[in-house]
Amino acid sequence: MTALNPNVRLGRSELQVTPICLGTMTFGEQVQEGEAHAILDRALERGVNFIDTAEMYAVPARKETYGATEAIIGSWFAKRPEVRSKVVLATKVAGPSRGMPWVRDGQGMTPQDIVASCEASLRRLRTDVIDLYQIHWPERHVPAFGSMVYDPSLERSATPILAQLEALDGLVKAGKVRAIGLSNETPYGVHEFVRLAEQHGLARVATVQNAYCLLNRTVENGLDETMHRLDVALLAYSPLGFGLLTGKYDESGTTGPDAPKEARIAKYESVRNQRWGRADGLKAARRYNALAREHGLTPTQMALAFDYTRWQVASTIIGVTSVVQLDEDLDAWGTTLSPELLAEIDKIRWDARDPSA
């Protein structure tokens, strides 16, 4: 494997990360503490210095596992205190409830909520500082998690972006956060956060974490230009389309109960009912997976290489349930896709568009 050097600068921040980030949302649900620690150890051994989590993890979100992922990472730090200085740690404050009252009361995300969530994350993670603190989804009503159309009649925003920024800036000034970011954001949201930060001398967003894979290239519909021109880095999540782009569902032809029993979409109805469980997504994934095999690649190799080599992507977030999966994903680093293969990928996209947007 080509060496993973921590030479990717996140926006205008001082954070230097590897081009692959370990996502941890399976920790505490599919992956228990011992195996999670083994995965973290192996990622560090393989050169990964970037770890991403969130207060609402594990996924699928449940009251019983709220905060479990951060707690598992915190116990890893406690057992191996020497590793904390070796990693860039990212976590997220959940946006408005979205049917999760155990996260917070009410529909908003007040400045007080942001501060309280940050302090709770610091305790669970057993650290004094969060390197990158992100808003998990906008406080505004925007299309996200499978909703594709903006409907202004559904707007219930209660906390202006400026107030959110001031709260985040206060955490930076207090030394609890080094840099800030967004997630599941729109071009408007990125522009507004940057504009207000520059106008008021507040902390500037360094990153946006959005889905980006062969089944969902909506980042290319304007967000990529926004981020390029404003010098904001993209952290691409779900590069394997929640497993659809590994080929594991190809034989069964379904993401329903008849799919492989260990697969998240088969196990968890709440996940299956969102964007990754659509029949059109699986249909498109099977075409991409067949194309990979025709070119001598595994579906996983092609899907990851797509993200690993895109100019839009600063760091790709990979989520795994075992050390074996981790090694497979890391071994795909350095895989190149020929111009001819990329042209074939674009042909499928022209037909299928973004079925998992």
TrEMBL record:
Transmembrane segments: none annotated. Keywords: Oxidoreductase. InterPro entries: AKR_Detox_Biosynth, NAD(P)_OxRdtase_dom_sf, NADP_OxRdtase_dom. Residues 19-348 form the NADP-dependent oxidoreductase domain. It comes from the Bacteria. It holds the Pfam family Aldo_ket_red. This is Aldo/keto reductase. It comes from Variovorax dokdonensis.
